[in-house]
Amino acid sequence: MTAPRTRRLSARKIVSRAFLGAAGACFLFGMAVTTGDVALRALAGRNIPGAIELTSLSIGLGALLSMPVCYAMQSHVTARLLSELMPNRFGRPLGLAGAAVSAAFAALLLWIMAQAAIEKIGSPETTADLGLPVPLATAIAAIALGACLAAALAGLRLALKNDRSW
Fold it and tell me: What's this model's pTM, rounded to 2 decimal places?
């Protein structure tokens, strides 16, 4: 019985690290584009075409890709006023409430983005600078928010089991 649990934890860590690695790559790409744009302007008086859009999209995607890990690990920003004063009385109920609200919020975000993605299907709309298809961008955001919901539900399940073994 211990072996499957160990494998499951390993799978969680692999998925978590994959999301964080992809998010980190997005942030590094945005940083590289910004740095390259500034250097090119200083050295050659030119800029990287679409640098602002590239940076915005990559940093936004990086944030979306890091959200599932935060939800699953329940590592988002919290204020622990009551749970620090009386951990036995408030810790578990407030942790459960926070996990439930996180799952509801993730579901709401997914619902809103999924509706937007469905509305954009077949649209010829593109981004201003790079000409990337907007339906693809909204679909990618909806998929990332689907991962957020799955992770928030996993975090809720762990909170119900009072399991912190990430």
Answer: 0.84
